[in-house]
Amino acid sequence: MNHSVSNPSLQDDALFAAGGSYLEELFDQYKRDPASVGTEWADLFASLTAEREAGPTHQQMLERMTPVTQVKAQLSSSHYADIEYPSRAIYLIHAYRVHGHLHADLDPLKLNPRAVAPELELAYYGLSEADLDQVFPTGDLTGGRSMKLRDILALLKKTYCGHIGPEFMHITDSARKHWIQTRLERIAARPDYDADTRRHIFGRIMHAEEFERFLHTRYAGQKRFSLEGGESLIPMLDALIQSAGSNGTREIILGMAHRGRLNVLANIMGKSLAEIFTEFEGTQLQEEAHGQGDVKYHLGFSSDVRTPGGVVHLSLGFNPSHLEIITPVAMGSVRARQCRRGDTDRREVMSVQLHGDAAFAGQGVVAESLELSKLRGFRIGGSIHIVINNQIGFTVNPHDARSTTYCTDIAKMIHAPILHVNGDDPGACCLAAEIAVEYRNTFHEDIVIDLVCYRRHGHNEADSPEVTQPVMYRRIAAHPTVGQIYRERLIGDGIISGHDADAMVEAYRDCMEKVRRAKNRPAPNALNSLQGRWQSYMSVGEDEPDTGVTADDLAMLVRKVHRLPADFSLHPRVEKIFDARISMMDGAMPVDWGCAETMAYASLIHEGGWVRISGEDSGRGTFFHRHAIVYDQQTGRSMVPLKQARNGPLSHFIVVDSMLSEMAVMGFEYGYSVSEPRALVIWEAQYGDFANVAQVVIDQFIAAGESKWKRLSGIVLWLPHGYEGQGAEHSSARLERYLQLCAERNMQVAYPTTPAQLFHLLRRQLISRLRKPLILMAPKSMLRQKLSFSPLEAFTAGRFQPVLAEEQVVAAAARRVLICTGKVYYDLLGERMQREIDDVAIIRVERLYPFPASELKQILAQYEGVREVVWVQEEPENQGAWLHLNSPIRQILLDEQKIYGLTRPEAAAPAVGLARRHKEELRVLLERAFAEGTEGMLV
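Now predict its structure.
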C-alpha cells in the first residue's frame, strides 16, 4: 500500500502497527466486494485508490506509520494471549535482534522520526510495566540464563538501539549470527576505551576537522569533496588498520571515490601536506611530457603504517569519477597479492572498500562485485565495506534514490552483516571497525559498516545545497561538529581540559600554515609505476623477444598437458581433440588454434610463468576449442591439465569460469594485472560485443590508466570477432572503438590470422618487458578454417609478425594489392583460389595499433607497378579499421599508388540479421575486390 492519506484513521494506524499482511488481505477483500469490509474501511480504501500516483513523501510515510499505542496494545495482547507467559521475553529478545536497528539512535541530524517497530513494545507480547520486575528465562541472551524483564530490556536497548544498530538476522548461517549477537551483547555494543585511546581518537578527529577547515579557508572555491560531517571515518580507519595489523594483516588495499579522499590521504596514508598544498596551487611540473595526469581527488597513494603486529602496507587505488568501479579493481589487486604471497588463509592481504550511500545503492557494479565475493576464482577472504552515508546523493533524497529502507540493503543478498553507526560518536565508529575486522578474519566473509553522517557542504564546495534541501541544511548549519561534540564529552569525563584541546588545535593549525608558507617546499613525488616488482619493466620503447619453442620441448609439453590419469574418463570428442594435438606437435598434421593457444600457455608455465584467464565459459571455451578444464564423464570431477606444466613457486595456471558479469569481472582482472606484472592476465568475452557492458573499465582504466596515473597493465582482452551471418549482436567486437581509444602508444590492438601468430603474440605479452594492454580480436569461424592452420616449424622459431606479406602472387605480376585484417583474408583467399586469379596480392595487417608503418611500407615498396591499393574489411564503412587506418596507410604509399576502401555500406547496427542478406553483401564485397575497376570503392 504505497499511498498517502490526508487524515489517517485510527484503524489505519492500528493495522500498520499490527502488520501489513492483514491490511493487504483486507484491501484484496475490498476489491472483490467493497460492501464486505464495512463503511469506514470502504471509504478509506476508496480515498487511497483515488489518490494521485505520485505517492507520499518519505516524511509523510513515516508520520503516517506512527502507531496508536492503545489500539496496538489491544491487538497485540489478544494475538499473544495464548503464548506461555515465561516465553514472552524470548520473543522480545528475538524481536530486538531483528528490529532493534529501527529504533537505534543513528542519525546525527534527527531528520526523520524512527521507523515503526511494534514488535519492540512490551504490549505486543501482552506485557506491561507491571511485569518489569518479573524474572524471565533469557535463552541465549548474553548476561545470564534468567533476568528481570527490566534488566533484559535495558540490555537489549543498549545493545541494539544505541549508536550502533546491527542488522544480522537475515544471515542463514547460525554460527555467524551467534558470533555477532554474542560479540555485541557481551559489551552492550558500547566501547570501553581507556583515557589514552579516547585522547588519540580526539586527535584523529581534530586533525580531520582542521585539515578540511584549513583547505576551505586557504584554497576557497576549489573542489575537494570534503569529509566535513563524516570526520569519524578517520579514527574508524585508524582503528581498523591497527586492529588488522595486530591480527596478521600485512597489506590493505583501499578503494574509495572522492568524498574524504584527500583527508584519508593526509591523515591515514601519510601523504605530505606539502605535496597536497602544491597540488592545490597547481605549481607542480608534469613528470614528463608523456601522459595527461589527473585531478588530485582521483589520485592513489601507497605508504607503510606501524601497528602493534608489525608494519602494514596501505595502497589506495587510483579512481576515476565512475565511483564504484574501483570496487572490483581493488578486489582483483587483493587476489593477485594473496596469490603472490601464498596467502591461502586470506589474512595477510585485506580489502577495505569505501562507498557513498547513493552510489552503493544505485550502481550495478556493486551488486556484481558482491556476487564475486564468494566465488572460487574471485574470493579474497571478505571485504570490509564502509559506506559514508551522507543521507543524500548530489541533490537527490533517499526516497528518490533507492527502493529500500537502507542504502546498505543490497549487501543482504550475500548475507553480509551490517553495522549502522552514528557518525557523531567516534568511539562507536571505532568499535564497529574493530568488530568488522574480527568478523572478516573469523569467517572470511564481507561485512558492511553504514557510517550515518551528513555532508556539511554541497556535493562540492562551490555548490549551494540549501536550494534543494533547505530543511536539512538549516539543521546542519545549527549542528555542532563531530569534533565539538567529542571534545565536550571528553571534557565532561575529565579526559582532557579545554586548554589542552585548544593547544592541540593551535599546534596543528600552525603546522599546516608553516608548511603552506614554506619557500623551499619540496616538489611532489612523481607518479612512478616502475618501482618494486615493476622495476625491470618498460612503459616506452621497443622489446621484441624471440618467442619460439624448440620442437623437443613442444613434444614433451603436449604430452604432459594432454595425457590424463588412467582412471579419468574423458569425453570421446575431447579425447579425440587431445590425441590430435599430440599429433600436431609431432609434426604429423597442421596445428589448429586450440592447440596453439594451449601450447602457448603450457610453454609459459613450464618456463616459470603465471597465466590467469577468466570469462564466461572460459574453461571449455565458447566454441568448444579450449578444454582447459575437463570433466570425468563417470564421476563429474574436474581437472585442469595445464597445471601439470607448473615449474617453480610462481608458476601458475588459473582458469576461471566467471559468473555472467562483464564489468565487475573485467575490473577484477584489470586490478589483478596492475598488481602483478609477472602474470599474463586474460579476460575473455563470450562474444566480443559483451565487452560493451564493461566500457567504463576500458575507457577509464585500460586505455587511460597509464596516461592519467602512470599505472601499467599487460591485461589481454580476448574478444571473438567476425561476420558469419549470425546477426548484429555477436558479429563485431567493435574494433573501431578500441582504435579510437589508441594514442600515445597506450595499448596494442591485434587481429591474428594464424595459430602460430596467436602463439607468438600470447608468449610475447608475458616474455616482453614492455607492459601494455592487448586488445585481441579473437577467431570464431577461423577456429576450424583449415586454410589458417600453421605448420609446426612456425612455432619453433621467430616471433609475432605485425604484417604478413603475400606468399603466392609474384609482386611484378600484380595489378592490385588488397590490404586486410583478420577473417576476411580467408574470404578473399577462397575467392581468389576459386577464380584462379594470380595478379591480386593480399597483405595482412596483424597488428593494427601501434600501426606497423615501416613493415607495411617495406612490403608495399615491392609493388612499384601497382597503382590500386585497396583496404578491404567485412565491417560497414563507419565501423572496423578503415576510418582509422586509411590516413596512416596513405602516408606510406609510393607516389604512384592510391588507397581505396572496400567495406559494407555504413550502418547503424554492426551486421545484418538475415543470413541470405549477409551472403549477398559478402558476394558483392568479394566481387568488387577482384574486379577490373574501382567502382563502389571509397576514396
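Residues 159 and 184 are 6 Å apart (CA to CA).
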